[in-house]
Design goal:
Layout lengths: L1 H14 L13 E6 L2 E5 L5 E4 L6 E3 L7 H10 L7 E3 L5 H4 L2 H6 L3 E5 H9 L1 E3 L4 E3 L10 E3 L2 E6 L2 E7 L9 E5 L4 E9 L14 H13 L6 E6 L5 H23 L4 H7 L3 H7 L6 H8 L5
Parallel strand pairs: 4-5, 5-6, 6-9, 13-14
Antiparallel strand pairs: 1-2, 2-3, 3-4, 7-8, 10-11, 11-12, 12-13
Helix pairs in contact: 6-7, 8-10
Bound molecules: zinc ion.
Zinc ion binds next to loops.
Length: 295
């Protein structure tokens, strides 16, 4: 029972955007990643803030009711109204503030598919989360298909698309000189991740995306995950090992023709559950979400 209620509560925390009062108590806190890059945590996806003489660049923006609080924290870490806002993917807990920041003059940037999803509206059935088509001010006005470079604030910053990972429009952001990466929801640090297979996500794609991030990382790299605490390369390696073990075990059972409930009753992830099932999904719930379409 505890697991179930914890699951419901956590999902509500991550995805609920219906009630403004649900945001009244949210506090935005910041973690220094480097002297001019900070990770902001509130409710929803972790926000990256990069400040400098050329302007403020933010990655993701949580939910609309939090924009003012985010803006206050951005100022505290030395920033101004963002010049650039990049969405790592379309989910509402990462792009909900787009309209507010767009109206303040931010140029919104994303992979092509993020704009398509926001323009069309979406439904995430797993959480009963319906998002109507986004207004014009919330839409990315600069989009890319594989990669985009920003040459600002003394760094070379690349947004790199990875296909069919958490969704079909993910990108991670690599700050080359700072040796920092914002992974978006390719990386849930410390727990079983949501993989949005109804919008093109797959476990295999997440593993490939993680591999691409690891290839650009070393022992000093600081990695901002979509959810969870600031991470190291070792944390991301452990996450990759977990995903590979889960993929191998579950895809074999699927190939044998076992149903979802048959697989759940076998407890196939028992050896890794202790470490990974304590955040967002219990083991059973995670298998229920990924088994039908993400493998
Ligand atoms: Zn997401």
């Amino acid at each position: 029972m505890f697991k179930k209620s914890f699951f419901v509560m956590t999902i509500a925390l991550l995805f609920s955007n219906n009630s403004i009062s649900a945001f009244d108590d949210v506090k935005i806190t910041s973690t220094e990643v480097t002297s001019n890059i900070h990770m902001l945590v509130g409710k929803g996806g972790n926000v990256g803030v990069f400040v400098g003489k050329d302007g403020t660049f933010i990655i993701d923006d949580q939910f609309a009711p939090l924009s003012e609080k985010l803006m206050n924290e951005i100022k505290k870490v030395g920033g101004n109204a963002p010049t650039f806002l990049l969405n790592t993917h379309f989910h509402g807990d990462h792009s909900g503030g787009n309209e507010n920041f767009g109206k303040k003059g931010a140029m919104i940037v994303s992979h092509d598919n993020v704009r398509k999803r926001l323009l069309a509206g979406s439904e995430i059935k797993e959480f009963g989360m319906v998002s109507p088509p986004a207004p014009a001010e919330a839409l990315p006005i600069l989009t890319f298909d594989s990669k985009m470079h920003f040459h600002i604030n003394g760094d070379d910053v690349a947004a790199i698309h990875v296909p069919n990972a958490h969704t079909d429009g993910d990108s991670f952001i690599h700050f080359k000189n700072a040796n920092v990466i914002h992974a978006g929801d390719i990386f849930f640090n410390g727990f079983y991740p949501f993989i949005d297979s109804s919008h093109g996500g797959s476990v295999k794609g997440v593993i490939s995306a993680v591999t691409a991030i690891l290839a650009l990382s070393n022992d000093e790299t600081k990695i901002i995950p979509g959810h969870g605490p600031l991470a190291s390369k070792a944390d991301l390696e452990a996450y990759k090992q977990m995903l590979e073990a889960a993929y191998m075990s579950l895809s074999q059972l699927k190939a044998k023709g076992l149903s979802k409930s048959q697989v759940i009753s076998k407890k196939p992830l028992q050896t890794i559950d202790k470490e990974w099932s304590d955040g967002m999904f219990s083991s059973d719930k995670w298998i229920e979400v990924i088994y039908p379409n993400a493998l």
